[in-house]
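Protein Entry — a single chain follows
Fields — amino acid sequence, structure tokens
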Amino acid sequence: MPKPTTYKFCFGPWNLSEGQDPYGPPTRPVQSFDWKLEQLKALGYDAMMFHDDDAVPDVDNKSDAALKAEAKALKRKLDDAGIVAEIVAPRLWFDPRTVDGAYTSNDPKCRRYAIDRSLRCLDIAAHLDCDLIVLWLAREGSYIRESKNARRCFDYLVQAVDKMLAHHPKMRIAIEPKPNEPMDLAYVPTIGHALALAQLTADPKRVGCLIETAHALLAGLDPADEIDFACAFGKLWSLHLNDQNGLKFDQDKPFGSANLRVAFNQVRALERNGYGRKGEYVAFDVHPFRTTKVEHWTAHLENSRRTFLRLVEKARSFPETEAQSLIADRNYAALDQLVLEHLMGK
């Protein structure tokens, strides 16, 4: 029997959000990156996720030399804290030039901007000794289907990824799918789409995926099945665990908050696939509730990890022999109750 995985955990600066939403202003004071790094370290997390402009603010207006100097300074700060950079992702959805898509914009100048920005993101990652780029294709889709040629847009996506692969030959790219929001409908809504797209690139071995619980649920899929599917290809390179109450906006609830059984099955999928044994991290892409007081600011991160570790215990202590007997007898009603009672502690 292989030794059980000892999981490593991370989160990003955005997971200590200040409470602003589309309907109201912040409910907590703005905090510096250094403060957020201190919270991550105090919580005992191992790594931090970054957008490119989390690592180097105002990326577009920095020279290559300034970008390198600031990224190297951040690397020293992380080293001093004993923290590594898990992923770096280009933030392509804030700039006015990406209002109609980044890589799939109808405007070639805007597509060029998106690729140039992405190549600079790869440079930042290299300076941070991070070899994993995450692409959340936020605006790669359409509000009006007739406004874009989707067949051409898939070519644009492959061309963009190919340029990134050529820019840094040792860098890996993980595509993070989501079916909607901010776009009405996205071109790469599921892990199946992401892995199919990877096969069209110049180096499919360096293109994998990142699964987010909420995004799978928004697509009407079970996140555990998505995990198993990605792992069947050896392509699950990162993970955003959270929760989601139905087919709504992306809620980023604490892990297990809405559906503990769905969370349990995600953990079982990670366990049976040996996720983490090659150094992969468990990231919690969760946000504090808008009502959260300053003194409770990190509770969602503490609770998510606590729930995850309790579910690891539940997965490892699951009465598998009894379950297999019930499966052989096709007694799924008893199996259903066995799961429920195991989760309830009987």
Summary: The CA atoms of residues 71 and 134 lie 18 Å apart. The chain has one domain: 9-301.
